[in-house]
Design brief:
With about 575 residues, the protein is of the alpha+beta class. The chain is built from 14 helices and 26 strands. The strands form six sheets. Strands 16, 17, 18, 20, 23, 25 and 26 form a seven-stranded antiparallel sheet that branches. Strands 1-2-3-5-4-7 form a six-stranded mixed sheet. It has a five-stranded mixed sheet with strand order 8-12-13-14-15, with helices on both faces. The radius of gyration is 24 Å and the shape is globular. The N and C termini lie far apart (about 65 Å).
């Protein structure tokens, strides 16, 4: 098919009714970019010609899909009709609050013109540049009063940051819920591939996916010769985890219709490919007031949100929300806070939002709210919990050597042979008094494996006396990417993920795994449980809250992992205790 498909529909204006209220819909507006490409957009507002502030939502998921918020109640996991791509916000609510809701298709998607090259158009026109032009065009329309904000969760949140970094004059503030700010960390957690972005791009696992036809290209295929691409593919297929997973094999052999995912699979190390246009690399350019909001339960998104909050230079707020990690689709959550923010910055309503603390944290377990000007909100101290025999976590190390405190091991079979996930577990005794944690931690584990690589997956649970468990945080590391960056500290490890260093089978190494930030109180009678595995279950108490594809690429060969926790090998967890 040609670049002209689908045809840019004719512009029209109509009035619809939602919840008994009339809404004017301006369909298929042509928004010109500086290079001559036109983006397609719909605008929703109250009837009448009065200019209003505008809230803009931009993504490749299709503006038509976002209109489901007018007809579908917000769905929460594990609802089977939860669609992770309906993220632009509650159209009827935006209109009722007297804003114009403008929803646009990014270049190369939906009805917009142009071509999209690779993940986040990394090989084409910067998305932030298009967002700048889109914002300025909206601000000049007679139905807009010249004041613009951004709206939407996840991908839309990332677009808010990319837009703000371009400093369009009409953009007065941003409110960002659940954004992704490190394009490497979006897919590779500690070097371990996360499969959920595949669903968002290709439409697997119930998601609609990107609204692309034939106007998305692979940046790898665009920039490398066929011989170079073949060499890259063959090298990637040497990874046993990749070659054992049929979808990975298929994508690498047949990239057509998988272009963005093909690029991600081929680029499994961090570096210029991801950092060139990373939102977290552009954060220092953001000067407009910025409100960041994130729910607990997916630690890497908390990590990135906290980093963004620390880097932006203007007025800013951070709101760490309660578990679970996935908000509604259609996205109808967090609107109360958003409208207070925008009423102040776009409408000039003195509603007291700026009299409140910069940082608000929901503490899991106790349900308490902590406030301050940073995260953690109070002073913390990293204290060790040592892995001991009999699956214990204790505040003192094991006094016996390895000949007596014999190491323990698990063997994980490839998932093509079993559905069972091998797990080693350690637990504290029941807490006798409330104990609060806030911040990032680390696991220092002495481990030998019988292969040259594997996944290390850590999950931390709050276990109630009645047996109910809730996930608190996680940690991931590819064994061959265990190298630490110079800025690492014992309780705050950082890995560059810039190269692979194969493990010597049978060699005992200390692996330092980043434990993603969290905020929780362990109540009396509760225990902290730490699980180590090479794979993770497709569904359990936590993963049932995630979409079907939201698990990590399993290891592709039989692997035995041996953990040493004795007087010579003092394997331990460092956690951020609130003083």
């Amino acid at each position: 098919m040609s670049d002209a498909y689908p045809q840019f529909p004719a512009e029209s204006t109509e009035t619809i009714t939602s919840g008994g209220n009339a809404i004017t819909v301006r369909k298929n507006l042509r928004v010109p970019m500086r290079d001559g490409v036109n983006l397609a957009a719909d605008a929703y507002h109250k009837p009448g010609d009065q200019p209003r502030p505008a809230l803009i939502a931009l993504s490749p998921y299709g503006k038509e899909l976002q209109a489901y918020s007018l007809t579908m109640p917000g769905q929460y996991r594990p609802s089977v009709t939860w669609d992770g791509c309906i993220e632009a916000g509650d159209i009827a609510r935006v209109v009722a609050e007297d804003y114009v809701h403008v929803i646009g298709d990014l270049r190369g998607s939906g009805y917009s013109e142009g071509t999209h090259s690779g993940n986040y158009n990394a090989g084409g026109v910067p998305l932030g540049e298009d967002a700048h032009d889109f914002i300025q065009w909206v601000a000049e329309q007679p139905w807009c009063d010249g004041n613009v904000g951004m709206i939407g969760t996840s991908y839309f949140g990332s677009m808010s940051v990319l837009a703000a970094a371009e400093r369009p004059p009409a953009l007065k503030a941003i409110f960002v819920n659940g954004g992704h700010y490190d394009f490497y960390e979006t897919t590779y957690h500690g070097g371990v591939m996360w499969l959920m972005p595949r669903a968002a791009r290709e439409g697997r696992g119930g998601d609609s996916g990107w609204a692309f036809t034939d106007r998305v290209t692979s940046r790898v295929l665009d920039e490398y010769s066929p011989a170079e691409v073949e060499r890259m593919v063959e090298e990637r297929l040497k990874d046993a985890d990749v070659s054992a997973w049929p979808n990975m094999f298929h994508v690498l052999r047949y990239p057509k219709h998988h272009e963005a995912w093909f690029d991600i699979v081929l680029n499994d190390l961090d570096g210029e490919w991801y950092q060139d246009r990373n939102p977290n690399e552009l954060a220092h350019r953001i000067e407009v007031p910025a409100y960041f909001q994130i729910a607990q339960g997916r630690g890497w998104t908390m990590d990135g949100t906290i980093e963004m909050f620390e880097k932006v230079s203007g007025v800013k707020k951070l709101d760490i929300l309660a578990y679970p990690p996935m908000n509604s689709r259609p996205f109808v959550d967090a609107h109360d806070e958003m409208f207070r923010w925008y009423d102040y910055w776009l409408k000039g309503v003195d509603n007291g939002v700026m009299d409140e603390p910069a940082v608000t944290v929901h503490v899991e377990g106790s349900g308490s709210i902590r406030t301050g000007d940073r995260f953690p909100t109070g002073e913390i101290e990293h204290r060790p919990l040592y892995l001991r025999p009999r699956h214990l976590l204790a505040d003192r190390p094991e006094p016996l050597g390895p000949e007596y405190a014999v190491p323990e091991a698990m063997t994980q079979m490839p998932m093509m042979l079993t559905n069972e996930v091998a797990t080693l577990t350690w637990s504290t005794p029941a807490f006798t008094e409330p104990t609060e944690f806030q911040g990032t931690g680390a696991a220092h584990l002495h481990i030998a494996i019988d292969q040259d690589d594997t996944n290390f997956i850590l999950r931390f649970w709050d276990a109630a006396p009645n047996g109910k468990r809730q996930l608190l945080t996680t940690g991931y590391l590819k064994a061959n990417q265990a190298e630490l960056s110079p800025e690492s500290t014992p309780g705050n490890p950082v890995h560059p993920h810039s190269r692979k260093i194969p493990v010597v089978p049978g060699e005992i190494n200390e692996y330092v795994i980043r434990v993603y930030p969290f905020a929780a109180t362990l109540l009396p009678g509760h225990r902290l449980i730490v699980e180590l595995s090479n794979n993770e279950p497709v569904s359990d108490e936590h993963n049932a809250m995630l979409p079907p594809d939201a698990f990590h690429l399993p290891i592709g060969r039989k692997t035995t992992t041996t953990v040493y926790r004795d007087a010579t090998h003092q394997s331990h967890i460092l956690l951020p205790y609130v003083k």
